[in-house]
Amino acid sequence: MMEILELDCPWCGEPNELPLEPQELGQQVLMDCRVCCRPIEIDLPDDADGRPVVRGEGQ
Ligand SMILES: [Zn+2]
């Protein structure tokens, strides 16, 4: 079952939604903010109940 991860862009603060694939748990993924198009690095939690760590470039 796919979950939607909601996170705030570290650059502009706007909310983004990331479809969370179960096999990606514990990995790092990169997405572009849908508002400002800057890259967002996301450390996914090890399980679906954890919280992701969001970073912008250089942070
Ligand atoms: Zn943004």
Description:
With 59 residues, the chain is mostly beta strands. It has one domain (3-56). 0% of the residues lie in helices and 44% in strands. The chain is built from no helices and 5 strands. The chain has strands at 3-8, 15-20, 28-32, 39-43, 53-56. The protein is globular, with a radius of gyration of 11 Å. Bound molecules: zinc ion (ZN). Zinc ion binds next to loops.
Brief sketch in words of this structure:
With 59 residues, this protein is an all-beta fold. The protein has one domain (3-56). The protein has strands at residues 3-8, 15-20, 28-32, 39-43, 53-56.
What are the SSEs and their pairings?
Blueprint: E1 3-8, E2 15-20, E3 28-32, E4 39-43, E5 53-56
Antiparallel strand pairs: 1-2, 3-4, 4-5
Bound molecules: zinc ion.
Zinc ion binds at residues 9, 11-12, 14, 33, 35-36, 38.
Please describe the structure with a list of short key phrases separated by commas or semicolons:
44% strand; mainly beta; 59 residues; 5 strands; binds zinc ion; globular; three-stranded antiparallel beta sheet; two-stranded antiparallel sheet
